[in-house]
Protein: Cytochrome c family protein
Amino acid sequence: MWGLLLALPATAQTAATRTGSVERGRAVYQAECAMCHHPDRHMDGPRHRGVLGRRAGALKDYDYSPALRSSRVLWTRATLKAWLEDPEALIPGQLMDVRLESAQDREDVVAYLATLRDPARTPPR
Structure:
């Protein structure tokens, strides 16, 4: 696949790399996020199933920081990417100290998170 990307013209490469890869996102999630997060259970961080479309700090059974609990942020693809780039810039006073430096890693992780639908509600498209 990477050989194909290298063979594309520069403008096509840019468009291709803007699309998140669920498979790559799962791998980045395992390497960078799974030490504190799990799709279905709380760990040091809250569970991620159903995160897309949920308000930050909204799970009743997780003890969020005051900054997240009082946040008005709705987790959309854009806000998740901003969070993964710089959590403190998005929600000052939050406690997560992990950032994903690569824009492609952020795209891919968000693509993966979008697959973690909560069957109890219909996620936004």
User: Anything to note?
Assistant: The chain has seven helices and no strands.
